[in-house]
Amino acid sequence: MNRNIFLTTFLGLSFLVLVNSSFAKDELQYSKIDRPGCPENSECSEATGKKRKYFQAELKKFLTKKISVTELNINLAAEKAFPYSLFVKNLNHDEPGLALWESQCKHHKKGQKYFLADYFVGKVDLPKMSELKFVVNPLLVQLEDKKFIQLPAFTSEYPVEINLNQKIYTATYLREDEGRFYFVSLDQNGKIQIVESPQINTPETTVCSKELTEEFLKISESNQFYEVINCKKIWLKSTKTWVTAAYGVPCQ
Description:
alpha+beta; 5-stranded antiparallel β-sheet
């Protein structure tokens, strides 16, 4: 082969590889085959599908009283099979336990792209998630003394109850998986557990104060990341009082 033709061909192929590699980092890689356990229309590995199936099987055992809540939490922690919802940027296709979708928010597709994710974990490891450039949704609670408490939250979800125990705040959420409802607690340090059904004082919608809104924006990914900031009156079990909590909704 002529040397000039060889160089031209080699450089052209190298350029295409570089372009495709760069493109792949910002695009989901969907499997052409159905992987058992994987959520519909997601980028999801076989290993992630197995974690999700394991979670669903263990949750069913608990809800049908075949195992205790203690056994359930031990099993899920050991298998790193608690589902936690968040957003991902700078895709890392090698990170285990991720199921990914394109964000439905138009503003998440301009400039920096964001992807919605279910992340199967043993705990919500906040330092690791920060290092991986994952976007942990915040819950910001304003106490009666005007002090602010920040906790990790699930995407677009608010808790049914908050509690303070041994100086650690914990929020309890009602979640659903394919028609099965369950309660899960998540504390300030990222400890996640399934819990027995609490006696609920129903949260009430309230107006976000200017002060709470401003503080929430300071800890958000950006001022434009959430389309709406909502506030709820949440029962603080430890003091038997209502507190106001702010959470973000990326788009409606």
